[in-house]
Amino acid sequence: MSNQVKFKWQWDIKFLLLVCAVLPLTISAIFWQLDRAGQKREILRQLDEGLASSPVSLESLPANIQNYTQVIVEGRWAEQVFLLDNRTRHGRVGYEVVGLIERRSGAPVLVNRGWVAAGNDRSVLPEIEIPPGNHRVEGYLYRSTQKPIVFAEQRWSGSWPERIQVIDFELIQQRLGEDLYPSVVRISPESPLAYQADWHVERKGPGMHIGYAIQWILISLLIVIMSLFVNSNLKDWLQQRRRNQ
Questions:
Q1: How far apart are CA 52 and CA 157, in angstroms?
Q2: Closest CA to 100 of 2, 35, 169
Q3: Residue 36: CB atoms within 10 Å
Q4: Mean pLDDT per segment of 10 residues, for the chain of length 245 residues?
Q5: Which H or E element spans position 29?
Q6: Taking the model in full, what pTM does it have?
Q7: What distance in Å separates the CA atoms of residue 82 and residue 79, rounded to the nearest whole number?
């Protein structure tokens, strides 16, 4: 009769140190992906609720209202115009025209009027019409939830329009010398004041991030299982149990 194999630990310190270094990273990746999935769910919720709502006056809304809320802005267009660079439509390079509406009360509002094509000479900026008088503009609120990535330092020309790489509220407020409403209004495509306002709204759900989270869960489980086999006689113990069955 063979000797009974008892389960016991046989510690491999080097492998344990490796597990202690790697396992917290994989677990952190799980929670990060789940958090990103939650953010995507929230974005989709805001998108569906906002675009289904009726336009309301911006003056009646709190400053922290959610993205995609349909709004009405009333005021006059200021001479200050920003051109959001390197925006493409159907393979053509151009700009998104970001104007400024000054209201009777409240901070001025940046309004993205849509896309215009760039000319062959990049040093020559397109001429932007600034409509005179007071106007009523409809659109929806939008502000990116991620910090803008700037690959080069913003340089101001000192004249209008100014060319910018991203909508960075802090930099734009420094250039204007005044505070702004904390979201951009993307103008309605039907507005007579709009250029090419064919806004692309992403509807990516949380599925990709949930899939990545499952992958990291499986990797974490694999690390734990490997650690059990390396730091014990689990393999021999399991083999004996199979022989005794």
A1: 40
A2: 169
A3: 16
A4: 73 91 95 91 79 82 78 94 92 94 92 93 89 92 73 82 92 93 93 90 81 95 92 82 74
A5: helix 13-52
A6: 0.70
A7: 10
